[in-house]
Specification:
CATH architecture of the largest domain: 3-Layer(aba) Sandwich
Radius of gyration: 25 Å
Strand order of the largest sheet: 3-4-2-5-6-1-7
Number of helices: 18
Mean pLDDT: 81
Largest sheet: 7 strands, parallel
Distance between the termini: 62 Å
Strand content: 15-25%
Structural class: alpha/beta
Number of domains: 3
Bound molecules: adenosine-5'-diphosphate, magnesium ion
CATH superfamily of the largest domain: P-loop containing nucleotide triphosphate hydrolases
CATH class of the largest domain: Alpha Beta
Number of strands: 20
Length: 514
């Protein structure tokens, strides 16, 4: 169904503006079924595979039904994790971009408490919240349920998996008997969820858009039978061979995640980690940078396996085979979102064979064996990034008022390339170095001579640093995106104050003579 046909169901023009902005034209099956039902006020229990647009399936009707003049919270959308809360709130804000006066606020644990209370005081009509946090807010009377009309539970199976059953009961008990419409969304509907629905929903309409065997969209699934020791080299080799720039690597333990991330950073692969022991700021930062494609590799535990929707993840690696077979489906569902295709690699050591079999059975899929010729990476040891890059020198620096983002904007505008293809910067006072995906080499050189920052731009190939500089000199700049950009800038600034500019300059001139 075309979204414009939703006018017949009562979807308003100002809501269609947001839908349009998101680039949605045709509804997905779950949206086609769920939107009219939710609009009609029915309770629903919806099962649909990951990546099929469940967020909009409840987001659109809820935005449409919200009263922008209401001075209370009308809808609570509950999710299992902080990351999902942030993501769903962002997606809903985009959908509501044409609706004036509608306030949507994310509420989650670990968030600055003042900010959270400030959000609540503004009386947003829609709150997106983690289940645990909302229970605490209700109990502390910070969130009033007087005007509550609708509750959505997203990723209910995950809520149960992480032991939130009690919270679910607690939340439902707060408004049982009141006239509150409920909608539950889940990728799988185990009997326990049917039970919850029977308990708390009123004549819920069940929607199921799963077709057996089609749970997984277009994902090529490979297995590598290897030893624990070979995992790391294999990972690096595949990244290199395929030129992947956006990948998600799953491990079963937080310590494993930390270790792998350190190793990748040491090898100058641009990665960050995500697990539940990290503080909220770092978790947000990791997701933000990964979403913006400012970081190539996200190394994570299963906190990232559910619901997270990052555009353009090319490959998923099960560095460890998950213990719970359902997690396999959720993990690999992070790629091939919205009808795109993707690849998943699972590293299977002899002791994982049984688990892998369970994963295959659960996903109704036999994995194809993937063989890498000679897992050696000697020839690539000097390679910093997953793709070949070229380092350019240019005659623009901080004294010309050029900050990283200005240089980035200038290059991307002139060359028509995305920012993520710029891999590293080093901005000095009167010159800078930028490292860019090698495929743009000719186009970059072609902008030589344009006017930029008040001077005539001179840009040329600088060559690899390691030829001329001491290791210790470029240790920092070798890890450009592994840390938040601002930190780097800060680091560069302090460093600039301490060290002479000569070595780098001399290096540059040497390069030219070669
Ligand atoms: P789910 O919750 O089912 O796992 P999401 O709601 O996260 O899936 O949606 C997956 C992706 O598909 C998102 O990037 C979303 O913007 C996109 N999407 C959703 N609905 C549509 C649509 N009708 N047309 C195109 N893209 C869509
Ligand atoms: Mg979802």
């Amino acid at each position: 169904m075309n979204f414009s046909q939703l006018r017949n169901e009562g979807i308003r023009e100002d809501v269609l503006i947001g839908v349009n902005k998101l680039g949605f034209i045709e509804t997905t099956p779950v949206q086609e079924q769920a939107i009219p039902l939710i609009l009609s006020g029915k309770d629903v229990l919806v099962q649909a595979p990951t990546g099929t647009g469940k967020t909009a399936a409840f987001g659109i009707p809820i935005i449409n039904m919200s009263d922008v003049n209401a001075k209370c919270t009308e809808t609570i959308i509950l999710t299992p994790t902080r990351e999902l809360t942030i993501q769903v709130a962002q997606e809903l804000k985009k959908m509501a971009s044409g609706v004036e006066g509608l306030k949507i606020a994310p509420i989650y644990g670990g968030q600055n408490l003042d900010r959270q209370l400030a959000y609540l005081r503004q009386k947003p009509q829609i709150i997106v919240a983690t289940l645990g946090r909302v229970v605490s807010n209700i109990n502390h009377n910070q969130l009033k349920l007087g005007g509550l009309k609708r509750v959505v539970l997203d990723e209910v199976d995950e809520m149960l998996d992480i032991g939130f059953r009690e919270y679910i009961d607690e939340v439902f008990s707060k408004f049982k008997g009141k006239n509150v419409q409920t909608a539950m969304f889940s990728a799988t509907i185990p009997p326990e969820i049917v039970g919850i629905s029977k308990n708390y929903q009123k004549d819920a309409v069940c929607i199921k858009t799963t077709v057996a065997g089609q749970e997984i969209p277009d994902i090529k699934q490979y297995v590598l039978h290897i030893s624990e020791e070979k995992k790391y080299a294999s990972l690096k080799e595949i990244i290199w061979q395929k030129g992947y720039k956006n990948i998600l690597v799953f491990l079963n333990t937080k310590a494993g995640v930390e270790n792998l991330n350190k190793r990748l950073n040491k090898d100058n692969i641009n990665s960050l980690c995500l697990h539940s022991d990290m503080n909220q700021r770092d978790r947000d930062m990791a997701m933000k940078l990964f979403k913006a494609h400012d970081v190539n590799v996200l190394v994570a535990t299963d906190v990232a396996s559910r619901g997270i929707d990052v555009e353009g993840i090319e490959a998923i690696f099960n560095y460890d085979i998950p213990y719970i077979p359902e997690q396999y489906i959720h993990r690999i569902g992070r790629t091939a979102r919205a009808n795109k295709n993707g690849v998943a690699y699972s590293f299977c050591t002899p002791k994982d064979k049984k688990n892998l079999e369970l994963c295959e059975n659960t996903s109704k899929n036999k994995l194809t064996e993937f063989i890498i010729d000679g897992v050696t990476n000697n020839k690539k040891d000097g390679q910093k990034f997953a793709v070949p890059t070229v380092r350019f020198f240019m005659n623009i620096g901080s004294k010309d008022g050029a900050e990283q983002k200005d240089i980035e904007n200038m290059i991307c505008a002139k060359v028509h390339m995305p920012k993520r293809d710029i891999y590293a910067y080093k901005i000095h006072d009167i010159y800078s170095f930028v490292e860019i995906d090698a495929k743009y080499k000719d186009e970059i050189l072609a902008i030589n001579g344009i006017k930029a920052f008040g001077r005539v731009l001179s840009i040329e190939v600088a060559g690899p640093k390691k030829v001329a500089t001491k290791k210790s000199n470029n240790k920092r700049s070798n890890k450009p995106v592994g840390k938040p950009k601002n930190n780097n800038k800060q680091a560069d600034k302090t460093k600039k104050a301490k060290t002479s500019k000569m070595p780098e300059q001399r290096f540059y001139h040497n390069e030219r003579k070669q």
